């Protein structure tokens, strides 16, 4: 699967595919986003400028805005972003893949970037490319929260809905090359601080 295959598949996907709880109920779906936003808030400073990469229809971006974060919601799918703004019109949305972020931000950098249920669907190569762009969008010392799972039996996803897992060694090498310092946390995702490469 190339990144473009994944992007195309998500653009055409039923919104129910975003999260298993959507098949339970809309209430359960949105409550899961509120709970995850509260979890993110334990590591992202109050009022921070945050970028939600692959925001979907705003399951987490909307509650992050409610918590007082200045949210930029980025997704490659305009359909997803339209669903988000139908719900909450005043969140900043950007239709872009990882390569399009820099063009939107210009010289600005975010205090924090998070990406949930996005990297997991990409190949090793595309995931590394995306994480590099997310790091570039984050100010030095800023926080990245990445749903980037490790496994003792790492494997690449073989479909747009599959899950790519990484070995700890692969992740450590990637962090060193990209400029990410792992931060200890109880979060179910990786938490990193943006550092200089080799610093
Ligand atoms: C499973 S949904 C997750 C949505 C949201 N993060 C959440 O947790 O509810 C994946 C989203 O990521 C977007 N996406 C996938 N790959 C992308 C990429 N390379 N660049 C930008 N968006 C991407 C898809 O369009 C889709 O909206």
CATH class descriptor name: Alpha Beta
Supply the CATH architecture: 3-Layer(aba) Sandwich
Instruction: Return the string of H and E elements.
Output: HHEHEHEHEHEHEE
So how many helices? 7
Low-confidence stretches: none
The main sheet comes to: 7 strands, mixed
Q: Determine the fraction of residues in helical runs and give it as a percent range.
A: 25-40%
Brief characterization of the structure:
The protein has about 200 residues and is an alpha/beta fold. The protein has seven helices and seven strands, in the order ααβαβαβαβαβαββ.
Describe the structure.
The chain is an alpha/beta fold. It has one domain: Vaccinia Virus protein VP39 (Rossmann fold). It has helices at residues 3-12, 26-40, 61-66, 78-87, 101-105, 124-136, 168-178, and strands at residues 49-53, 70-75, 92-95, 110-115, 138-146, 180-182, 190-194. The relative contact order is 0.15. It is globular and about 45 Å long. Residues 3, 6-7, 10, 18-19, 54-56, 59-60, 75-77, 80, 97-98, 116-118, 130 line the site of S-adenosylmethionine. One of its GO terms (biological process) is methylation.
What topology emerges from the helices and strands here?
Blueprint: H1 3-12, H2 26-40, E1 49-53, H3 61-66, E2 70-75, H4 78-87, E3 92-95, H5 101-105, E4 110-115, H6 124-136, E5 138-146, H7 168-178, E6 180-182, E7 190-194
Parallel strand pairs: 1-2, 1-4, 2-3, 4-5
Antiparallel strand pairs: 5-7, 6-7
The structure holds S-adenosylmethionine (SAM).
């Amino acid at each position: 699967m190339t990144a473009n295959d994944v992007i195309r598949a998500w653009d055409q996907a039923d919104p129910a595919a975003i999260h298993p709880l959507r098949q339970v109920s809309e209430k359960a779906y949105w409550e899961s986003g509120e709970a995850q936003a509260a979890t993110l808030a334990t590591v992202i400073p109050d009022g921070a400028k945050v970028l939600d990469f692959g925001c979907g229809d705003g399951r987490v971006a909307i509650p992050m805005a409610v918590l007082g974060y200045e949210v930029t919601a980025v997704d490659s799918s305009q359909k997803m972003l339209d669903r988000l703004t139908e719900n909450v019109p005043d969140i900043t949305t950007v239709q872009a893949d990882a390569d399009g972020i820099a063009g939107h931000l210009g010289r600005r950098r975010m205090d924090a970037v998070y990406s949930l249920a996005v990297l997991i669907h990409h190949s090793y190569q595309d995931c590394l490319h995306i994480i590099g762009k997310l790091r570039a969008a984050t100010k030095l010392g800023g926080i990245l929260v990445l749903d980037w799972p490790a496994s003792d039996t790492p494997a690449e996803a073989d479909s747009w809905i599959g899950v790519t897992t990484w070995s700890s060694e692969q992740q450590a090498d990637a962090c060193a090359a990209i400029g990410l310092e792992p931060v200890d946390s109880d979060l179910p995702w990786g938490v990193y601080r943006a550092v200089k490469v080799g610093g």
